[in-house]
Design a protein that fits this description.
Blueprint lengths: L19 E2 H22 L5 H18 L3 E4 L3 E7 L2 E6 L3 E4 L5 E6 L3 E4 L3 E4 L5 E12 L2 H6 L4 H17 L18 H16 L4 E13 L1 H41 L6 H16 L16
Antiparallel strand pairs: 1-5, 2-5, 3-4, 3-6, 7-9, 8-9, 9-10
Length: 300
């Protein structure tokens, strides 16, 4: 019976490369040019043409070996050095640098990058379809992992952002959550922190670091946006009505209390009930009150 073989991915860790400053090698290249010029001058003399050819040969070999090894590094740039496919280290020293010409050199930017994901349609905690996008600030912290542990760390990051967004969104309602329940609309900072933590877990294998993650777009999907807007409007109207009623009741209570304390008028229970009804109608109505003059009594 054949045994199943499990191949584990071996993470490649960044380490310093053995490279040289390019300025001494630049002087060596100039020396090679001088040797070639001096050799050419000696070749024209029949007595020294052999030594001249030797100088030309030495100078040419030196120039051919030195020139391809130069490379330039700006701040927040790095170069991964390889030898016939074998990773030999990463150089982060800025300026003119030099290594052997048979060494492979691949530049990697370690600067901060800002990425805004595409809008995707996902379902929130209650199953409502929403359109969402995220803004991610990230950078490369391990050049060896970024280059050799994934095919393309840019593509890898984009896919992991979408996967993390879908996972995080499924744990939150868009709005109107239960008591003390965070929502996508009201708790954007908390959602961003969770997205950053989840995304960092996924992209650590690629040697990337997420400095910040925030939602850049959040809206109901077009097919339910109209219905959800009407629901929000209704909830806003109900909340406003509730405050109006609470304020009206407080005002009526204060009015009855002051009338009683100042002994302006003595009201029995029936008159109090009529006064409360009239005041509530006046205070809670959408339109201005229309006064009615009663020339008789309440019982006529």
């Amino acid at each position: 019976m054949a045994k199943d073989k499990v191949i584990a991915l071996t993470a490649t860790g960044e380490r310093p490369a053995s490279t040289l400053s390019g300025y001494p090698m630049l002087l060596a290249a100039l020396l090679a040019v001088v040797l070639d010029a001096y050799g050419i001058a000696r070749v024209t003399n029949s007595d020294t043409h052999v030594s001249g050819l030797i100088l030309i040969l030495v100078g040419t070999i030196m120039f051919v070996l030195i020139l391809p090894g130069f490379y330039m590094l700006q701040p927040n740039q790095a170069v991964a050095i390889t030898l016939f496919g074998d990773y030999r280290g990463t150089d982060r020293v800025t300026g003119l640098r030099w290594t052997w010409p048979w060494m492979g050199k691949k530049k990697v930017s370690v600067r901060a990058n800002n990425f805004i994901s595409d809008k995707i349609k996902v379902n929130d905690l209650r199953g409502n379809p929403i359109d969402i996008a995220a803004q991610i600030m990230w950078r490369v912290v391990d050049t060896a992992q970024a280059l050799f542990d994934v095919d393309s760390y840019d593509t890898f990051l984009n896919i992991q952002i979408e996967t993390s967004l879908r996972e995080i969104t499924s744990h939150f309602a868009y709005d109107n959550g239960d008591e003390d329940e965070p929502t996508l609309r009201a708790d954007g900072v908390k959602v961003g922190e969770m997205l950053q933590s989840k995304l960092q877990e996924r992209i650590a294998v690629a040697g990337l670091l997420v400095d910040e993650a925030r939602l850049s777009h959040l809206a109901y999907a077009p097919e339910i946006a109209g219905a959800m807007l009407r629901r929000q409007q209704a909830e806003a109207v109900l909340a406003a009505r509730q405050k109006i009623v609470m304020g009206a009741v407080s005002m009526v209570e204060s009015a009855l209390q002051q009338l009683s304390e100042r002994e302006i008028v003595a009201l029995d229970d029936e008159r109090k009930a009529a006064m409360v009804s009239n005041l509530l109608v006046v205070l809670c109505a959408d339109r201005d009150a229309q006064p009615v003059v009663n020339a008789g009594t309440l019982y006529q």
